[in-house]
Design brief:
The complex is a heterodimer of chains A (160) and B (202). Chain A is an all-alpha fold and 160 residues long. Chain A contains seven helices and two strands; from the N terminus they run H-H-H-E-E-H-H-H-H. Chain A has helices at residues 6-25, 27-44, 54-75, 103-109, 113-123, 129-136, 140-159, and strands at 97-98, 101-102. Chain A has a two-stranded antiparallel ribbon with strand order 1-2. In chain A, helix 1 (6-25) runs parallel beside helix 3, helix 2 (27-44) packs across helix 3 (54-75) and helix 6 packs across helix 7 (140-159). The longest helix of chain A is centred in the middle third of the chain and has 22 residues, at 54-75. Chain B is of the alpha/beta class and 202 residues long. Chain B has two domains: 22-104, 2-Layer Sandwich (Double Stranded RNA Binding Domain), CATH 3.30.160.70; 122-201, Winged helix-like DNA-binding domain superfamily/Winged helix DNA-binding domain (Arc Repressor Mutant, subunit A). Chain B is elongated, with a radius of gyration of 21 Å. Classes of the chains: A mainly alpha (160), B alpha/beta (202).
Chain lengths: 160, 202
């Protein structure tokens, strides 16, 4: 079995991985996460036993780095900027941005882990449900459910 | 489409389209190099013969490819024969880049960069190693090189071995010519062979 040169993976999928990271952790942490993910990928790459869906494989590693970043942030004493408070008659989602990022990302980031990852993979990295399932290590139905429940929750929270 | 869908789509449209900034990639390559995770580093090196793709392992120079070779094919060959951890990490190529620059300016007669023979094997490797011994400005015939590789009769195989040279210029297959003065063939085209021989006669 022959694996493509690692640089070819970066050239083909680096942008999608980076978009997923920018949406998931914000632009200032995305570059560090990208580096961590690529280093981890390089470490295990020669031992990979199949070359199908290398984009999914890279995103799976990136997704673990996102979880690490979220947990590290949760441990940090600095308060996390909260999701925007809803005002009566406000539109959904709020049009304004938080720290220069779309407010909708802040709302997605507040979702439970699996829903959050699934929504970001769908909307930021443009993955099919089959690919989302591969990254999450779940069935396709479960992937679909995670995306739908995540979006439902966002809508419900806002109109509650 | 709901307002939420629209907001998600709009936010996704604002994400960077071209991957991480180049400084972030440079930091990544530097760290990968430091942690010994780059088995093959490559870079493009400008030369009077066109931009060369130059690759090195931890052992040394492993590949020089003329621009006619498809980059993805060259890299796929390295991934297959050496390791799939192939990255465009140009810093490792700085010494050979400098030596090639000096060579093409006529200021260098010998390459110091160590060679990794990983892409060669058997009789072809012996042919190329014999060729590496030919000094700057000198020429040898195919049968002399065949003899140097240990089989004086294998003149045709010697030609094939030289044609397979994965490191032209540095392994000087251009210094091998026909008995009687004909130039013979060259992996990068006969004009390049003439150019290199003329450069070394200056």
């Amino acid at each position: 079995m022959s694996l493509p040169p690692f640089q070819a993976l970066l050239d083909a999928h680096g942008a999608a991985v980076h978009r997923f990271l920018v949406a998931s952790v914000g632009p200032s942490e995305a570059d560090d996460c990208f580096q961590e993910a690529c280093i981890a990928a390089l470490r295990s790459y020669p031992r990979l036993t199949h070359a199908d869906n290398l984009r999914g494989w890279l995103l799976r590693i990136a997704q673990r780095k996102v979880i690490d970043a979220h947990r590290a942030r949760a441990r940090r004493p600095v308060p996390v900027p909260a999701a925007p408070e809803r005002e009566a008659g406000a539109t959904f989602p709020p049009a304004e941005s938080i720290d220069g990022q779309p407010a909708v990302w802040a709302l997605v980031r507040a979702l439970p882990e699996k829903q959050r990852v699934a929504v970001f993979l769908r909307s930021a990295a443009d993955l099919s449900y089959a690919e989302v399932a591969e990254v999450l290590g779940s069935s396709q139905e479960a992937a679909r459910r995670n995306v739908h429940e995540g979006l439902k929750r966002l809508r419900e929270e806002w109109s509650a | 489409m709901t307002e939420l869908d629209r907001a998600l789509r709009e936010a996704a449209g604002g994400l960077p389209a071209t991957g991480p900034p180049s400084e972030a990639l440079e930091r990544l390559y530097a760290r990968a190099e430091k942690e010994n995770l780059v088995d093959v580093a490559y870079a493009q090196v400008d030369s009077p013969l066109g931009p060369l793709t130059v690759a090195a392992t931890h052992r040394g120079l492993v590949r020089i490819a003329y621009p006619e070779r498809q980059l993805d094919q060259v890299l796929a060959g390295l991934a297959e024969a050496v390791s799939p951890r192939v990255l465009e990490a140009p810093a490792r190529l700085d010494p050979i880049r400098r030596e090639l620059g000096e060579y093409f300016e006529g200021r260098r007669r010998r390459f110091e960069t160590p060679i990794d023979w990983a892409l060669t094997r058997g009789f072809f490797r012996r042919v190329l190693q014999a060729t590496a011994q030919i000094d700057y400005g000198q020429v040898r015939t195919y049968s002399e090189v065949a003899a140097g590789a240990g089989n004086v009769k294998a003149v045709r195989a010697t030609g094939n071995g030289l044609g397979s040279n994965p490191m032209p210029v540095v392994v000087p297959c251009h210094r091998v010519v026909r008995t009687g003065g004909g130039l013979g063939g060259y992996t990068g085209g006969i004009e390049r062979k003439e150019f290199l021989l003329a450069l070394e006669r200056r």
